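Subject: two folds for Thursday's group meeting

Dear M.,

Sorry for the delay on this. The cluster queue was jammed most of the week, so I only got both jobs back this morning. I'm pasting them in the order they finished. Each block is the input sequence followed by the predicted structure tokens. Could you check whether the formatting survives your parser before we put anything on slides? The first protein is the one we discussed after the seminar.
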Amino acid sequence: MSRERLSLIVADDEPLARELVRRYARDIAELDIVAECASGDELADALGRAQADVALLDIQMPGQDVFDVLAQAAHRPARLPAVVFATAFDSYAVRAFDLNAVDYLIKPYAADRFAEAMRRVRTRGARGDRSGDGLERAIRDLGRRPDRLLVPDGRRMVPIAVSDIVWIKAEDDYARIHAGGRSYLVTRTLKELEARLDPEQFIRLHRSALVQAAHIREIVGHGASRYLVRLNDGTGVIVSRSRVPDLRRWML
């Protein structure tokens, strides 16, 4: 690895996420992005042609599985770059460090956390150590609930506080987050977001609706055995029959 500069491959299927990395990278001296990838197939191609020092990888992308791409690249004569994973899915942490990843960033991460990961890459390269000593950090992060989410706002990615989220609605393979009087369409499913958020705070009221309990204004009867939940922003959500027991547990 070069002592003066770091060359970086960025792989993430979200254009705004790649843009955020570009912005973070501009603030770090001697760091060059040499390739950007939006799929596992593009990553495989980049690893084959770009002599990079480090690869910052999202785990869930279209095309080839990222772990398979790395396993295939490891059998090539060219040196595999140091790997830093950046993903919203902390369940992959142990598998990531089986591949000796230098670090594991859980989205959303701030500029200082990105800079720390790059420092770890430099330190690892300076001492010639390729072991996965980042595993301890990953284990600590397992099960951690975020206090903010990074969401698209036009051409930017902006953080919103989890405490400001009133409810989340499923829209096919996407989800719309309603927070602070605005809504944000994110490329995650409702199921994925539900897994990341604290079940003590968020209640699934319908297959298409996840609400934050702190933003429930009132609950009224709706028919013989159903309920209508009215939220602080005025939204009304009818509770499906299968979810009534979950709501009753919260009401006790």
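Second protein, same layout:
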Amino acid sequence: MAETGETAQTQLIYGRDDRPSFGPSLLAAFAHLFAIVASILTAPLLIARAIGLDVDSTQYVISASLVVSGIATFIQTYRIGPIGSGLLAVQGTSFAFIGTMAYAAAQLPPETSQDELLGILLGTAAVGGGLVIALSFFLKSVAKVITPTVTGVTIFLLGLSLLWSALNNSWRVFANASVGDTPYLAMEWLLTLITIAALATRKNLYARLVSVPAGLFGGMLLAAVLRDWAPLPTPTADPLFFLEVLPVSLDFSFLVLLILLPIFLVSFTETIGDITATSLVSGQPVEGKTYFSRLRGGVLGDGFNTVLASMFGAFPNTTFSQNNAVIRLTGIASRQVGYVLALLLIVLGSIPWVSSLIVTIPGSVLNAVTAFLFSMIAYTGFNMVRDRAQRRGLLVLTIACVGSLLLLGVPALLASLDITIPPYAAILLGFPVASGALLAIIADQSMA
């Protein structure tokens, strides 16, 4: 099959192997940074809060996530041996693991210490990254089972579960506030949400790229005006942040792996789509040997970078899709921009003040941001399903949603009948994303 690239390749100002001067490289790198920095900062913060890490550990995770994102972006862009796509592909902590990490942490014994909890989650994530590495050599076989329809259904269920969590968190913020502060918190929540939604729905790519940072800034500014809120970063004696190798002892839980596995599989297929889109907007082949080699390298890079993140105390990494819009916007697909961006992420993560500032974001503002992002995740999943084989995709979605909800009551029903089921099965039935993904696979395969 002939290797073909994007027909608009001539519209690129700088192609994959071009070397723009320092000025254009830095400006393009900052454009990418604005597109993803809010996600890179928010995802580890939410996971840390969801699993109950203290302030010091949360700050470490945030700083480590930025530095690891820089290292992972360099690996993915430069391509070290077979690892990496060799394209301007940006890596960061995946939002998909927020709900699953929280659910997995809740299944561990109550007496589990914070370090033990973190060690189990990171160690199991490293095993999951290893599975992704192994699966990168069986791309076509996995794609036959984890189809776009299955991926869309899982993303939809994941988005709904995360959105429900974000709304519950918002409600708790309002419920725990004083009577005088409640209207102000509601105004901050609404302003943040409206700002992001207004910018994210514009046709102008610049507006969409700055939507989340603008929403965060607007919400925090209103909090400062209404409630005299002020960011008070935790003082630290260390002028610079340095990664630690194995900050906690890694451990493994088969139960946690079962909970995380559907998300790893979804992330696997999403990466295939993201790398394909990056190839397309970069004027590179989207079929043939070169494309397949880059695709395998990109998926392998995702798995390797997840293992690397676990070794340094950060959560699973994945390839971000929003940076494809930046390539379209700037017309710059040069890998050199990726190297500069990687350096910017490492420098940003090496400043302790950044992570200590992030943990002070008002709950009203943060929960508004996450509510929007998670609703977009659900919307993305729904669109993926709706676009597949007309009614077939929606039928699979309906079966998965209804079936996963019905399965929630199975453990209680069996217990009332004095029927015992394995604890692992009961826990998995209680997680609709996992049970829904399994039902989607069965339904999709039966209709093929």
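Two things I noticed about the second structure. DSSP finds 19 helices and two strands in the chain. The chain has two domains: 11-178+233-361, 389-448.

Cheers,
T.
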